[in-house]
Amino acid sequence: MPDSSAPSAIHCDPVLQPSPSVIATVLNERADIDGLLNSLQQQQPPVAQVVIVDGGSTDGTWQHLLDRAVLWPALLPIQDESCSLRGSPGPIARGRNVAIAAANGSVIACADAGCTYAPDWLTHLTAPLLNEAEYTLGGSRLQLDEASTWDIAAAPFLGVKLAANEPTKSCTARSMAFTREAWQRAGGFPETLFIGEDVLFDQTMRRSARTAFAAGSKAIYTPRNTLRGALHQVSSYAVADGVAGMRPARLLRNVLRCAAEAIALAFLSTTPWPAALVLALEVYFAYRLDLRSLLTEPALRPRLSAILPARLLFSLAVPWVVAFNQVAGARGKQYRTNRQNA
Which of 1, 228, 250, 317 suits 260 as a labelling partner, its CA being 20 to 30 A distant? Predict the structure, then answer.
């Protein structure tokens, strides 16, 4: 567990309160930070405390947080340069642990600087914790009228939903909440992982804490990806799985899909049936999770002629990208940095 005495703008030993604290980590997020802060400031009922740990931003993020804290007493900004790759192999996890240690809520909700949140997000996310649950998951969804074609094509492969009412079992820390006791019992977020720390934390929490999936609590996440950006995101997650040795069953499924596609192509000159069978399976993999939303969401209808083939193309590429990069991560034990930590 990290030392709770991280340097801060305003820092004291927390006296625990029953109201939830919302935490997030940032590093060079000046372009996105207002979307997060504004949506948290609009929560109803109002958020009692928002703790944001900055890992040493150089783009004006930190000064902007200080300026916002003057106008919004609920905001507690903390700057800790150990919450970057210069100071920790797992800067995001460390930032979350530092934020939780400084927060005064007995219930913690995790948010993300790249997301926005509906005004009732926190109420829905933490409602199961008032009963028997110790850990709740909300998942994430796209803002469809702002999403790119490749955001929509990549969505199910990144654990992102298209509609607010789609069921989710996503483990993303863009929207999760837990009791402080459950976080302590789990040993906090694992600070040895650069990417995928929320996946490993989730695996630990599901073994040790009573878990619920909270309806109506999805983070709104719209990266506006290009094809290259979406593939890079998939490959980064696959590398992280390989480095951490996580999700071997996922690797096996994707290797088998690659093998099936290769065999179908090898026999294509003699018989079309293997290729037809593989294509049918790939169509199933491409649309199985959210076909209803693809066909019925009004914001998508004018774009279906571009979205449907893009989804199939992306689905065909995913097993190759995942298999190659997960094996590369397992062999090289080296993460890919992101733009903030480059």
Answer: 228
Beta bridge partners of 23: 51, 110
How many angstroms separate the CA atoms of 229 and 211, rounded?
32
**Do 213 and 294 reside in the same domain of the chain?**
no
- Enter the pTM of the model: 0.89
**pLDDT tens column, 259-300:** 999 999 999 999 999 999 999 999 999 999 999 999 999 999
Respond yes or no on whether the N-terminal peptide bond of residue 45 is cis (omega within 30° of 0).
Answer: yes
Mean pLDDT for the stretch of residues 310-319: 97
Average pLDDT over the chain, rounded to whole? 92
Residue 322, both tokens: 């995942």
Q: How many domains does the chain have?
A: 2
* Domain identity same for 195 and 273: no
Q: In this structure, are 234 and 107 located in the same domain?
A: no
- Tokens standing for 57? 């931003």
Residues 91 and 187 in one domain: yes
Confidence of residue 14 (pLDDT cuts 50, 70, 90): low
Q: What values do phi and psi take at 249, rounded to 5?
A: -65, -35
Coil, helix or strand for 200?
helix
Q: Which domain holds residue 132?
A: 21-139+174-221
Three-state SS for 71? helix
How far is it, in rounded angstroms, from Cα 207 to Cα 104? 26
HSE, side-chain direction, 13 A CA sphere, residue 256 = 7
Q: Residue 341's pLDDT band (boundaries 50, 70, 90)?
A: low
What's the mean pLDDT in 146-154?
A: 97
Instruction: Count Cα neighbours of 212 within 13 Å in the Cβ-side half-sphere.
Output: 19
Q: Say how far apart CA 23 and CA 49 lie, in whole Å.
A: 8
**What tokens does 184 get?**
């302590």
Instruction: Name the domain boundary from 199, 221, 243.
Output: 221
User: What Rg value do the Cα atoms of the chain yield, rounded?
Assistant: 21
Give the confidence band of 18 by pLDDT, cuts at 50, 70, 90: confident
